[in-house]
Design a protein that fits this description.
Helix content: under 10%
Shape: globular
Structural class: mainly beta
Number of strands: 35
Distance between the termini: 60 Å
Strand content: 35-45%
Number of helices: 5
Mean pLDDT: 87
CATH superfamily of one domain: Cupredoxins -  blue copper proteins
Low-confidence stretches: 1-31, 181-213, 215-223
CATH architecture of one domain: Sandwich
CATH topology of one domain: Immunoglobulin-like
Largest sheet: 7 strands, mixed
Amino acid sequence: MSFLSRRRFLASSAITIAGAGLSVGAFPATASPSTILRVDSRTIEVNGRPAKVLGLLQPDGTAGMRLNAGERFRVQLENNCGEPTLVHWHGLLPPYGQDGVPGLPQPLLESGQTYQYDFPVETAGTHWMHAHTLQEQRLLAAPLIVHDPADADRDEQDVTVLLHDFSFKAPEELLSALIKSPAMAGSMDHGGAAGHTVPDMEGTDMSGMQMGPMPGMSDQAMAGMTMDLNDIEYDAYLANDRTLQDPQVHRVERGGIVRLRLINGATATAFWIDLGELTGDAIAVDGNPVAPVRSQRFPLGMGQRIDIRITLPDSEGAWPILALREGAIHRGGFILATKSGTVRVIGGASATTAPPLDLRLESGLRASRPLPGKPSDRQSTLHLAGDMASYVWTINGRTWDQHEPLEVRRGQRVEVTFMNMSMMAHPMHLHGHHFQIVAIDGQRMSGAVRDVIWIPPMRSVTVAFDAGNPGEWAFHCHHLYHMARGMMTTMKYVV
């Protein structure tokens, strides 16, 4: 098939979220001088029931936004949802004041008000936008894709999928059920555990990878360690607003190349991305390119993104891509199918329990654009703690209302070691910066560049970044309810 005919085929397969009135274009569109994004309510269908949720829509119904690297992010954010809100541009590196975190320093956007954003976007990547409030649970999120113009000639199909955990209950009700005491210690103004052991991860080529315990812990102790998982029981797990009872089907070409851009927008759920019969190469994480790692299964924590390139079989067929909830049988997902491929309904539960997420893939990732070699000027340790009984989560023993900023100076190479002393994993996110993984459990490495890092129980991960974006930036766990119950601080530039 000729290049032109294939491109025409791919162009005809734009991603459509049926039933929700949303669409995400399959190819980049040049950003207008001022792209309008509206926070508004919408209704979707979940397991046969209507659900009123929120969304980030352009006037034509497009969910989120696509632009090219080198363009400016010129966005007029309009609040039409009838309540105060604010949107964070997760993965972009805006100047301080345009990051979208209430109080740092922007106030909440009142209903009927608008904010104007304008800053450069230098590098490509798979990112997203979401509320930095409990409204994130109400699906106030959308893709934010920055294309590399050099990829325009690639003979491949983009498929963007935003994953969510969904509840018919209000997020305030979910949070209240987690709190075992009447006191809301450490709660933010803006903002069912089960025991499992750590098993082996299968289906991944991890030659040369290392995995070890925190210093002082034996391998035997790690293997038998009991973890707390999945503190909320959700009603459904969505992929572009759809369940596996009525999945989104992306029509693909036999023998074609597909680039999956997967975004974990879930508030409290980590997934394994399971390619089933297919094998793919992870080529980017959190919008930053990595040396390809081939597997059939990839971990994806809350807030993280992964780009996976797949070459499809040269035959008719349908291939489910599943998002398996860690430590559970629940799953969501979508389907890649050729024009004549037979699509079968897949249930929302698997026959086996998915393992907890671990650091085996992380230990094997290598950045395509690592930080330049330089010794660190500033080293800090953040101890992550908390428990299910109190449902209070802390950084260095402090909740958000008592936090002490991590102080840095412009131009410093900063290293931060996360030590997770709790029995739940924490996806830690730093705003306004990307960081490189430079050690796992004290073992030095030159890992991926990210903006969210998964920290399992009783493990440590060290990240490094160059302080070059002055301001006071949110630094928090991307489990929404851990953040709401205290696990947030700031990273503050000082003179």
